[in-house]
From TrEMBL:
Name listed for the protein in its UniProt record: FAD binding domain-containing protein
PROSITE patterns: FAD_PCMH
InterPro entries: Diverse_Substr_Oxidored, FAD-bd_PCMH, FAD-bd_PCMH-like_sf, FAD-bd_PCMH_sub2, Mopterin_DH_FAD-bd
UniProt superkingdom: Bacteria
Residue ranges annotated for the FAD-binding PCMH-type domain, each copy included: 1-174
Length: 275
């Protein structure tokens, strides 16, 4: 879609682009959402791809993901064998259920900052205990837990002009065993629920991340594997207003699916299923 209110595109922003921010600006990365709907309040786009942030930076501490890393780059990345949770990368990318053209443009950071309940990059990074590095217009930076970033449907903690620069996934989370479940009403539909369970090697703990069915990511943590009743009670204890409603499912339907798939994940990890 043409954005007919735009009067300027900043093609070569400074390394710290926030200093140029003003009302009516928008950060441009993949643009797959930005150019899909009218943006009557925008006057200028600032192109972040010109900064050429490194898309993927593995190290002993874990994996750093530049916010402008495309879905295609994330999907194709080769990870060390000991990072068993890396199998979730492809599964989360496939949850987009979009064309290769979108994959080649859409960015990890863009999906996170859209902060939609069904954002699969949110699911992935929250489940793997990521930290987000945020840059403010005044040049300062802060680091936040991925779990705290999204606050509701299309809502997050970004201040005006603040930007997501980097996602850091710790090595200990990448070494965990994982199980996941995803449901949509149609084969190529948006996620109705998307759950990921992780377990530390040599332990019986459980970290269950619930997304898509909730307006914000929910994490349930257990030091030891809970029994079925305890897990169900923990899901039922979530606030009623956290469950999401749209044409893909009612809150009641999503809560039911979450109970069902959470129990499947619990049993899979107890049985020593896929790493």
């Amino acid at each position: 879609m043409d954005l007919n209110t735009i009067t300027e595109v900043v093609r070569r922003p400074p390394d710290r682009p926030g200093a140029q921010w003003r009302a009516g600006d928008a950060w441009l990365a993949g643009g797959t959402w930005l150019f899909s709907v009218e943006q009557p309040d925008l006057r200028r786009l600032i192109d972040l791809t010109a900064l050429r942030w490194e898309p993927l930076v593995p190290s002993g501490a874990g994996l750093g993901i530049g916010a402008t890393c495309t879905i295609s780059e994330l999907y194709a990345c080769a990870l060390p064998d000991e990072w068993t949770a890396g199998r979730l990368f492809a599964k989360s990318c496939e949850a987009f259920l979009s064309s290769f053209k979108v994959w080649s443009s859409a960015t990890v950071g863009g999906n996170i900052c859209m902060s939609l309940p069904a954002g699969p990059m949110i699911t992935l990074t929250v489940a793997l205990e990521a930290q987000y590095e945020l840059w403010a217009p005044d040049g300062s930076a802060r680091t936040v837990d991925a779990l705290a970033f999204v606050t509701g449907d299309h809502q997050n903690i970004l201040a005006p002009g603040e930007i997501l620069r980097r996602i850091d996934i710790p090595a200990h989370a990448l070494r965990k065993r994982t199980a996941h479940r995803r449901f949509s009403l149609t084969r190529l539909g948006r996620s109705t629920v998307f759950l990921i369970g992780t377990q530390s090697p040599g332990t019986s703990d459980l970290l269950l991340t619930v997304t898509a069915g909730t307006t914000r990511p929910v994490r349930l943590a257990f030091d030891a594997m809970p029994d079925a009743r305890t897990l169900e009670q923990s899901i039922d204890a979530l606030p009623a207003d956290v469950w999401f409603a749209d044409p893909n499912g009612t809150p009641g339907h999503r809560r039911h699916l979450t109970r069902h798939f959470a129990e499947e994940i619990r049993r899979e990890l107890m049985a020593g299923g896929p790493a």
